[in-house]
Amino acid sequence: MSAADSVAGLLARRGPLLLDFDGPVCSIFAGYPARTVAGDLVALIGDSGVSVPAEVAEEQDPLEVLRWVGRAGDQRLVTMVEDALCAAEVRAVATAEPTPYGREVIVGARQVGLPVAVVSNNSAGAVTSYLAARRLAGHVHPVAGRAYADPARMKPSPDPILRAASALGVDPAQCVLIGDSLTDIDGGRAAGVPVIGYANRPWKIDRFAVAGADVVVTSMGEVADALMSLLKLR
């Protein structure tokens, strides 16, 4: 059985499609590199008088910088870094690179009759800005973005997934999540949601399977093909 057939079988038995944003929908930091944003956040922390460990100073993922600040326990600093990251993400979506077939998946799911939501560790404001600019906002609701200044609620916490399911008025088990990271798979499992692992790097294929993804695809085109096959059956 092909991956597209496996995806079609999974989607045919369930309702809403939950999409991670950075990966399945677009590469948010394609034009405004994540390492630049992370470096700016580290500099902001240093300018506030807080000593930053070497491993954090070298971090290239701004979300991991925010996680570290959250663990440090200084809520004033968390809020400052959160605000700076939100602003950087809104700037980044202007030059974000759409994921091949990401749009087709969103539109195809709506044609099949599946509600589509975004569950992201990025800010809801950035996600909403991207969807509006790409004329996709009418196809996606809700957008469950990063909980403001509360990084412990980012995936792998199930929080954004559960918020989206609640807003849709469905049991989480009725949904299917597509994500491109281990935090998506772990968050989906914690929420009781089947997960399609989008392995956009070769090394992810085996890792996602071991982590418990229900299906692993290497292209969002496989999901688009699955949705097209379901549409033909209607």
Nutshell version of this structure?
With 234 residues, this protein is an alpha/beta fold. 51% of the residues lie in helices and 10% in strands. α1 (3-12) packs across α11 and α2 runs parallel beside α4.
Per CATH, the architecture of the largest domain is: 3-Layer(aba) Sandwich
Largest sheet: 6 strands, parallel
SSE class: alpha/beta
Helix content: 40-55%
* Domain module count: 2
Distance between the termini: 21 Å
Compressed to H and E, one letter per element, the order equals HEEHHHHEHEHEHEHEHEH
Extended strand count: 8
Strand content: 5-15%
Count of helices? 11
CATH superfamily of the largest domain: HAD superfamily/HAD-like
The CATH topology of the largest domain, please?
Rossmann fold
The residue ranges in which pLDDT falls below 50 over 5 or more consecutive positions are none
Shape: elongated
Radius of gyration equals 18 Å
Average pLDDT, all residues: 97
What is the name of the CATH class of the largest domain? Alpha Beta
- Strand numbers in spatial order across the main sheet: 5-4-1-6-7-8
